[in-house]
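Troubleshooting entry. The earlier prediction with fe (ii) ion gave an output that would not parse, so I re-checked the input for stray whitespace and re-submitted. Clean input:
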Amino acid sequence: MITPVKATMMSTARIRVLQITDPHLFADASATLMGINTSATLDAVLAKVHSDFQAIECLLVTGDLTQDDSEASYRHLTEKLSTLKAPGYWLCGNHDQPGLMTAVNPSAMKKQVLLGKWQILLLNTRVDGEVFGYLSDSELALLDSYLAQEPDKHCLLALHHHPAPINSQWMDSSMLKNPDDLALTLSQHSNVRGIIHGHVHQARDYEFCGLPVMATPSTCVQFAPESDEFLADTRQPGFRVLDLMPDGQIESQVIRISDESMKINLESKGY
Ligand SMILES: [Fe+2]
């Protein structure tokens, strides 16, 4: 009986997805951010993905794709991600231009990705002209509607901005400004299993509304954890591997491209 064996294999299979975030690319591939060539560090991250994590269902890019608002930077990202076998999906960060993102790669702008017993929802927290984040009524309504439509699927929620303070004054001043609205929507459903985000350029695991929240290192510059003022970090770029389990658990690990210290301009007062 082949069918029952297949069903058993499907029900125990983990779904592996990758998160990369905050690549801050430029039109000029030789341009640098705080002394770091952001195109080269993204290439190094993707080389690590190619060598060690080929078998993935999709790749999520959680915002700040560009540093210079250029259409070319989005084209560069599209070309780099096209070397992977899995599809890539994008959401907006405060540095992004949603019109250009859609023009360059409309298929990457999916809000909902269905994968077996899971759905991944990618929400837009960008506010025009601001660094902080906000979930508009329409984004919250979309979240509510997707969760209601798929009550039997576990949900991984992807954002750019962090929904709760991370003990870093300068970063927390630009977090999501309406976490209570998100909490209210989440409280009306029981199928969200975790939240991932970018923006903070560091690895961090914490909780929001009883859910695991995972912040992921940028593919370029890192920020020092728990610093009240802007401070860069010498840790290496990285990404996050997420294994979505059939029972709703999320197993995750952060992978860095190297254990060595990064040569970064630590005198920078901002980015
Ligand atoms: Fe960023």
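This one parsed fine. The radius of gyration is 18 Å.
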